[in-house]
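Journal club prep — side note

Before the paper discussion, L.F. wants everyone to see what a predicted structure for a comparable chain looks like in token form. Sequence:
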Amino acid sequence: TGVLKAKDILISPGSIPDIIISGSEIYFTPQYVTLGQTNMSIGRSDLAGEGRVGNYLGYAFRGTTLTGNLDLRSNLLDVNELLSDDTAVQDTTTSSSSGVFRIPDNLDMSISANVAKVLYSNMDIENVKGKLIIRNSAATMQGLSLGILEGKVTANGTYSTATENPKLAADFRMDSVSFAKTFETFTSVRALAPVIGGLKGNFSGALILNTRPDNEM
């Protein structure tokens, strides 16, 4: 049992901007680890959080289930700055996959996030809120909402690898998204639907997705 207190810690990973931990307290017992109010910055990005992790000794030595909850907050998260040069996002057109991502069956975690602004590729995303639950070899996103392309997008969904073939079920809803901003942001839209470039106004819609990804996702 004990407590670890940190203040004004500077970490220089090299591949990403310096990490500065202005303050953090971590409390240990044999049953759980509690993360007290923690504040840090990574380049332009800031991050604050607290939470608790249970059964960490059983997880480390016997592989039993790690439990916990974490609450994260940020005023600005610059994803472009956090990515190394080798993995930097150049465009929002394409993505690649190297096979199915398996979710461990010995995790029972809940992560809540509230981010005022996210910079990702050429997009400014605002008021990102939601909860991620990892349990029973599945990751469930609850109540994800974000402001993007002058409109709002909400989503709920679950990706499960409890069986040999993964399952993905999700619903996305878009409200008052700008035609002009969509055309300006996505090169794939400009290539596949150039007619959108001449449209003014907004659009709304919904997408319900149920699928079983193959080994190449």
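L.F.'s comment for the group: The chain has four helices and twelve strands. Keep this in mind when we get to the figures.
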